[in-house]
Amino acid sequence: MQKNINTDTKDLFVGIDLGGTFVKIGCFSEKMEMLSKISIPTDNDRPKATMNSVVNALGSLLSQAGLRMEDIKAAGIGCPGVLDTKKGMIITSPNLPVYKGFSISRYVSEKINAPCILENDANVAGWGEYVLGAAEDVDDMVLLTLGTGIGGAVITDGKLIHGAGNSASELGHIIIYPEGRECGCTQRGCAETYASASATAKRANEMLAEGAASSLQDIFIERGDVSCKEVYEHASQGDRFAYEITELTAKVIGLLCVNIFSYSNPDKIVFSGGMIAAGQALLDRISFYFNKFIRKDIDVKIEFCFANLREDSGIIGSAALARDTFCLV
Ligand SMILES: [Zn+2]
C-alpha cells in the first residue's frame, strides 16, 4: 500500500509505552528514526502524576537532543487492557486498575499541544510490525504476542480492527477446547489457557508436581516451579516430557492460526513476546499443526514469522500509529 505522509522533516513524533511498572518514551523523526528515548517508573495509584512525569521527561529528552516541544506533530500511547480508543481511556486493565476512566490521550494532548492517540499495546506492536517491521511488505497481517497471555492485533486492508466494543482482536480468548481450562476472562478453553508462556509453564508444573519423569524434576524439586524458557530448553535437549508440553502449545497455536485464517485471511502471522526465544523449532511446529488442521479445498497462502522490532516495539509502534493517524493523506 502506498503511504503518503504529510509532514515536514523537522516534525517529531512521540511514542509512549505505558506499562504497569515503567513508562517508556521515545522521540522519532517522520521516517521513524529514533532520536532519543527514556524510561521512567509508573505511579500505579496516580495517573495524572504519571502523565505529568511523562511530559516533564519528554521535555528534558527533547532539550537534551536540541529539539523543541513545539515540533511535536503527534503522540501515541500504547497500554495493556481493553480501551475506549475513541475517548482515549482505559475500560479495564489488570496492571493499571486506577487508570480506569482517566482520559489519558486528552490529558497528554493538552499538555503537549498536539493530537494524541491511545491504543492497546498489542495493536501498537502490530502497527509497528506492519509499518516498519516483519510485515511491512503486506496489507493484511496478524500479530500474536506469546507472553503472560496471548494478545493479538489484526490489520486488514491497512486498518486495525477494533470491533463495536473495542474488544476485537483479543485472539488469546478464541476457544480451542470447549469446557477446557478456566480463563481469567470467565470463558473456558481459551487458547491462552494452554499456549501462552505462563500457561505452558503452568501445565508443566502441574504434571511435575504429580511426579512426571523429566530432566526438569531437579529444578522443580529445588525451586518449586519451572519457567516456560526452561521447558523449551529441556525439550530441545531431548527431554520427552518437556517436548510433549511444547507440542500441545504448538498444536493450540496452530489451531488458533487456522481460526485466524478463516476470520481475516492474513498474508502473515507475526509472533512476538518472550516465547519466541524458543526459535525456529517453535515456528516449525506451529506450521506443522496449521498444515495438519487447515482446510484443503482452497489454496492457502500464509507465512509465519517472528517480530523484528523487539523491546522498542511499544514506542516505535505508538509513534508510527500517531503519525499515520494524524498525518497520513
Ligand atoms: Zn479467555
From TrEMBL:
Signal peptide: none annotated. It comes from the Bacteria. It is an enzyme of class 2 (transferase). Keywords: Kinase, Transferase. Its EC number is 2.7.1.2. GO terms for molecular function: glucokinase activity. The keyword Metal-binding does not apply. Belongs to the ROK (NagC/XylR) family. This is Glucokinase. The gene is glcK_1.
